[in-house]
Amino acid sequence: MKQVVQNYKSGELALLDVPAPACKPGGVLVRTAFSLISTGTELMKVSEASMSLLAKARARPDQVAKVAQSVAGNGLAATYRKVTNRLDSYTPLGYSLCGVVEQVGAGIDDVAVGDLVACAGNEHALHAELNWVPKNLYCRVPAGVDPRHAAFGTVGSIAMQGVRRGEPQLGDVALVIGLGLIGQLVVQLLVASGVRVLGVDPDPGRCALAERLGALVCGDPGSGVVDTAAAELTGGHGVDQVYLAAGGATNEPVELAARLSRDRGRVVDIGKCSLDLPWNAYYEKELDVRFSRSYGPGRYDAEYELEGRDYPIGYVRWTERRNLECFVDLLGRGRIAVEPLISHVADFSAAVDTYRRLNEGELKAVAVLFRYPREPGEPTAPAEPSTRVVSAHVSSNSRRHSRGDRAVRIAFVGAGNYASSMLLPHLAERDDAELSRVVTTSALSAANAKRRFGFAEASTDVEAVLTDPAVDAVFVVTRHSSHAELTRRALLAGKAVFVEKPLALSEAELAAVLAAIEESGNDRLQVGFNRRFAPLLRRAKGRFGQRVGPASVRYLVNAGKLEHGSWYDRQGSEGTRFAGEGGHFIDTVSWLLDGDPVSVHACATPGQADLQVMLSYPDGSTAVISYVTSGAKGFPKETIDIVADGKVLRFDDFQRATLYGRRRSKSPRLPHGRDKGQAGELDAFLRAVRTGGPMPVPLGSLAATTLATLAVHTSLGTGAPVRLDVAPTASPNRTPR
Questions:
Q1: Domain co-membership, 261 together with 312
Q2: What are phi and psi of 123, to 5 degrees?
Q3: 230 and 95 co-located in one domain
Q4: Is residue 380 part of a domain?
Q5: Domain containing 211: what range?
Q6: Which of 246, 317, 543, 624 is the most exposed place for a label (fewest CB within 10 A)?
Q7: How far apart are CA 186 and CA 402, in angstroms?
Q8: pTM for this one?
């Protein structure tokens, strides 16, 4: 299928061939009829992408701060790969469309194939021939509504949420600053609410249009026409609300809002304009400044948008979806007119040229629609998920096949930022690895990975990978909740599997993976515990030498706070943060101590912000992992102290290792980057797959680390230690030589 994309690094716009999205449970697959260009938001993004790197940095200082923090925590090389991956990738455009339901996912019963729906979301209502849209981001279009008009649903919801934030009442006087697409809709919504409306915009054509749509007086901000009208309509008191629907860097809108507002009036920011509030003007009138967050309550809440969890109407009357439904209902009843806003309708095949004309000012428009070709082919039924259930225990059987000198043919399930910055760059450079297939839930992610790393094929069909006899190894680099099931299915399909941590989020998931190994005889499994392969840490362990007595280990992980909205924080679906990341540190300690833990005891500060995890080992060794989020950003992320036999090894964040014994020895400091072992683990995995030799980490150790990670949550709940038992016992946890 075709999709409009942009490369943020080069600014290139393209109409790209990408795989069609799969129809997942909880949503519908929609064939687009019309999609709307947001001439404000999207053109700002297009314009920003054409800037130099320095100009981009000036435009997004928040992102520059994140880059600086990443350099401090991960090193320059890793940060460079991460930033380059994000910049040099195609990103989607679009967030408002109307189309026909082509396929209905499991759990959806409010629409049927063939229904016309309005869709919202900058990840789901894209300028693309097909989109998968979750339940709370679409609504059925009433009979008689023109599909072109229904394509305005998202921007209509944005305008509606802004009006709701202003709390207008019958007879109020309101001022709308900025009469672009959103501003024109705000004018109409206010008029429909019984409000007398004034408008300000430097474009005379837009002012005239707003007056035709119900505004009483509109004019240029410097003309004085609107000032006079506001004084006459309000008896000199000032307007009740001001709606900022303007963009740009000028501070004139907020200054005008203060001048024309009444005492204790409301100023609602809907657009993205400069907000350097003149303190005296806003203080003296005690103005109420409010922000309108996009389409309404539910925006940026993954449980609402992606998982379909609605807010009770008794507590949240107007959500994203209810705003969308309300707007298309107003269209159906003729209370809102969007036909006068449509300046141009372009064929989707001319999308790139249309953006160029808009960006260069050749095409002057309030609203532009893309018209899509009709393809009424038969919709396909959703694939049934696998429901096979097997018993679980650790199996020592192994089905090994040597590939000789032939390159290992690899498929990736998932190609997000970690895969694209930490794994794929290493694999793309190797002669013994052939990147065969990449599968992602997002069609564009798959297309990006194919373009950047040279995959032979890209798709959204996992089953095609698992049933492809040409694929030797499957990399599972998806979100945590899908790791165990995808691993289980890949093992049953006879593939070697590299799965990023965690292997499982519950004992039941772990049991299912182990059962698949027993059933298939295929134990070719590696979990992405990369730290044991870090060159500096391996050299440090070698310098410490063989132990005589038990060791004490202290491992401080200065994890820091998560960004707001991070999917790592979705405990309901993705497990706790430690369940997702803690296996790294438990595996590292177990490798350093040449054994697997036999008990786990955990305690935490209130809210489980900072964890103390105490591990016991068969030889009497103990370890304490302090996993903290309340530390300083500038402090190293990982520091390890090992004490045994009159020696102390201090390891500082993959940059330096110091051994204290009869004499002190210190490794050279690594100033330019931290090698956390990704290249080493990939080398070991590919060698094992290619030669049929043992996997880099014994299966029993992978199971023990996973159980120990899960036991942390159990111990926090009971307040008591948890004994671990992996039976039958696998081979000792030693790295094969």
A1: no
A2: -120, -5
A3: no
A4: no
A5: 159-291
A6: 317
A7: 67
A8: 0.79
